[in-house]
Amino acid sequence: MAGAALFGRRMMWRVGTVVALQDETATARTITLKVPDWPGHIAGQHVDVRLTASDGYSAVRSYSIASAPNSEGRVELTVERLPNGEVSPYLTQEVAIGDPLEVRGPIGGWFVWRSEQTEPVQLIAGGSGIVPLMAMIRSRAAVGSAATFRLLYSVREPGAVWYRDELQALSDQNRSVALTYAYTRVAPKGWPRAPSRIDAALIAQTTWPSNLCPTCYVCGPTSFVERAAGLLTTIGNSPDKIRTERFGPTGDRK
Amino acid sequence: MGIISRGFSGRRSAADAKLPPGQYLTTDFPVLSAGPTPHIPLDQWEFVIDDGTDILRRWNWKSFRDLPTETFTVDVHCVTRWSKLGTFWEGVSLDTILADVKTDASYAMARSYGDYTTNLPLKDLMNNQAWIAFRFDNKDLAPEHGGPARLLVPHLYLWKSAKWVRGVTLMHKDKPGFWESLGYHIYGDPWREQRYSGDE
Amino acid sequence: MNSHTCHYEYLDGNAAAGELSNIFTMDVTAAKGQCAHCGATKRFAEAHVYMQAPGIVARCAVCEHVILRFVTTRQRVFLDLRGMTCLILDTSQLIDSGQ
Question: In what order do the strands lie in the sheet with A13-23?
Fold first, then answer.
């Protein structure tokens, strides 16, 4: 099966080609790569991207894959430009269509949603943590899965939402993906909840009841993930059913 | 080496003649850590000199702060390749700390809250080249930079300048610390680019 | 973990998996590791990983003791697993030979 058997071989750096670029917000851009001999991926996995300067200096960063598993070697990454970032400004401002880009992956066999899964799924994203969860939502739609999804997506402000139209369309055309936004700094006019961090009431009202035993995927900055995972267990979800992935700045590695 | 990324230079400034080989200049102060940042209340803080068996000297925060202090401006070089020039500190010289310690040991293991360790020749802690620093840039040293107090040995790579230092164990034989036991150089002179074990 | 610790510097095992793929051909994020200090058995994905450092340091998510250290030098990699009594990797996802 495409995109399922991924391990057992040493992972090598592959040279992908940038085939499309799309801005998601003023600071985030989706880069679509075509990667020859791509072994396929599972929703939720990530890749390492390596940039190398002309003197040999290199920097490696991890980015989650946004695209659903596919057999065309298409890998989409959505990258947020970090202030004082080393790699993200390059990826969001410098990279052009046709450029080669080195990737290693796909990486990770734990924070994944497989299309064989049938249980309810609770997704919780903080900011750019939406990316691997978007791959799961896209994967679900692509295979016509009957698994019911809920997404709680926490962002600073309405303008910081990624994939807004696609999420809306998927949620409109298919009631099995229920969408809740939570705003931490600025909410749209008339929004029922004052801007604030996610809390117990929000988790209790908008996530699956724990007696349905949903598998929960939480992705975002470490502080967000700790909070969300803690709240999920507070309302009765088993820690065994909560899978987390923490985003954050990674070191300058050579 | 990978393929060249057109137009990528990384977060680095132009080469500076004052920098050790392989280093680049940074103006911010990157925070490196191998574990959770300990937050040590000053009334629980202590600094101990021992020889592996016996405690030779012990200070609490008050007696430590009663020691004479110095201010100093030094360049620091991290093995992850950034260097920061002209950093301004206040601290107690290890010459002061070790003044009344009688020992024939040749090596020292700095020990930290959070169980970090790093080894140095004892002579590198002496002769006005090492301090227990507690202020940086005229402010109390922040926990993420090693506060309340850290070792500062700026002539060696910065992993030798143990953050959250809690003591020094004097040793007759050299012994590798946390990073030295995992591929990093036993001494770590940035000017000789002694990054990894096996580097000359 | 120190109760005074108020901000988070760590990532998790997912973040280290790319570097560890240099030595493991099997996925490490789904692997289970037992902490030699407290005995907790957790997925490596759940470990607290510190990467803003001269190497990668993974700590037990329960007791924060070091379970794995990994350093890449010019020609060698160093792997310290003494903090784990056992690491269980999953072979069910191995590539079928010939695929």
Answer: A58-64, A46-52, A100-107, A13-23, A28-34, A74-80
